[in-house]
Write a structure and sequence with these properties.
Elements lengths: L2 H15 L5 H8 L7 E6 L6 H14 L4 E7 L25 E7 L11 H10 L4 E5 L16 E6 L14 H4 L2 E4 L7 H13 L7 E4 L15 H10 L7 E4 L2 E3 L8 H17 L2 H23 L16 H8 L5 H9 L11
Parallel strand pairs: 1-4, 1-5, 2-3, 2-4, 5-6, 6-9
Antiparallel strand pairs: 7-8
Helix pairs in contact: 1-4, 2-4
């Protein structure tokens, strides 16, 4: 990519991320694209080697001639609000390709491992012709699960020897993974880590890793009315065993990303899942879920705008301040304040400005 194009992409991302003038028009155009870039989300606990894997996978796809963008979500600084930008120093194999665009983003205090604008930024990158976007989450551990709302394929990465069993086998991460991978497989305990994840998956899945036809599965999945929301989400994304014509069982692969071992096989598994998801129509369902999540975020931002404290402001918004004083004195509760503000009534003695 030429420097002029890189500057245009950078300006577009900053415009959308900062909600600057013109961002709505840009998103209106981007969201009308008939086909978006394929999104691969990579998440997992700290130290799993996410950045090293992103570097290896982008180099793999770039070598095949694909136009790839990477969004690396970093923790936000408590002082500046910006990102640490540490992921740039781990770009080794991918740094020499001019068909890769890399951007570090601050989470801006948003929980869930992403930035609130992640899906919007995927739309913008699609507008610039990128066919694949890799999102690397903050890496805060078990709570780092929001990426599955945006990604077409979510890859959960772990390593051996994390202490209390395997972090990836905890609730939350187990419910979002389309593919699981044990990195640093040359370390002791890698096989045990792989078996632990496979055992955890066995509680919800049946059949062989990858695509399974209905005839491949003997058991019948519980009805959606009798399962947890997480399990119901798995059925929607991967199929309901014994009923759907095809189902997906997340494979658990091993690799050594730093040595580029197993990266090709992992990339092939990602493309297999995305292809299966498109063929079975499940990608369309995921797109609808993604659209719903974005509507909720946009609606929340619009509804909260009159009550939101501006960055750096010392005083609270005038419409909220009286309620804050009452709560601090023990004369009211937050839910009373919220209901009153929602219904358009003010705290006693307050005049609307």
């Amino acid at each position: 990519m030429q420097s002029a194009e890189l500057r245009r992409i950078a300006r577009a991302i900053s415009t959308v991320e900062n909600r600057a003038v013109g961002y709505e028009d840009m998103l209106a155009e981007a969201y009308r694209l008939p086909d978006w870039a394929r999104v691969i989300g990579i998440t997992g606990p700290p130290g799993a080697g996410k950045s090293t894997l992103v570097d290896a996978m982008t180099a793999h796809w770039a070598q095949a001639g694909e136009r790839i963008a990477v969004l690396a979500i970093d923790p936000s600084s408590p002082y500046s609000g910006g990102a640490v930008l540490g992921d740039r120093i781990r770009r080794n194999r991918s740094a020499g390709y001019d068909n890769i665009y890399f951007r570090s983003l601050s989470s801006r205090g948003h929980v869930g491992g992403l930035t609130e604008t992640a899906t919007d930024l995927v739309a913008v990158l699609s507008l610039f012709g990128f066919r694949r976007v890799i999102i690397e989450t903050v890496g805060a551990g078990q709570a780092d699960i929001e990426v599955h709302e945006t990604a077409d394929c979510t890859l959960v990465l772990t390593v051996p020897g994390l202490g209390d069993g395997v972090q990836a086998s905890k609730a939350g991460l187990m419910e979002i993974g389309d593919i699981f991978a044990v990195n640093k497989a040359d370390m002791p305990g890698a096989a045990d880590a792989q078996r632990t994840i496979e055992a955890a998956l066995g509680a919800a899945y049946m059949g062989n890793p990858g695509i399974n036809l209905r005839a491949d599965t003997a058991r019948t999945a519980p009805s959606l009315g009798s399962v947890s929301p997480g399990l119901a989400a798995l059925y929607r994304r991967h199929g309901k065993f014994g009923e759907d014509a095809q189902c997906w069982v997340p494979p658990v692969l091993t690799l050594v990303a730093a040595e580029n071992q197993g990266v090709t096989e992992l990339a092939q598994a990602v493309d297999t899942f995305i292809g299966w998801s498109q063929q079975t129509g499940r990608s369309q369902g995921r797109s609808r879920e993604r659209a719903y999540a974005q509507i909720m975020r946009a609606l929340s931002a619009l509804l909260l705008a009159p009550y939101t404290r501006e960055a750096g402001a010392e005083n609270f918004p005038a419409i909220v301040a009286p309620w804050i004083d009452r709560i601090a004195k023990g004369d009211a509760s937050p839910i009373e304040a919220a209901r009153s503000l929602f219904n358009g009534t003010l705290a006693p003695g307050t005049q609307r400005r």
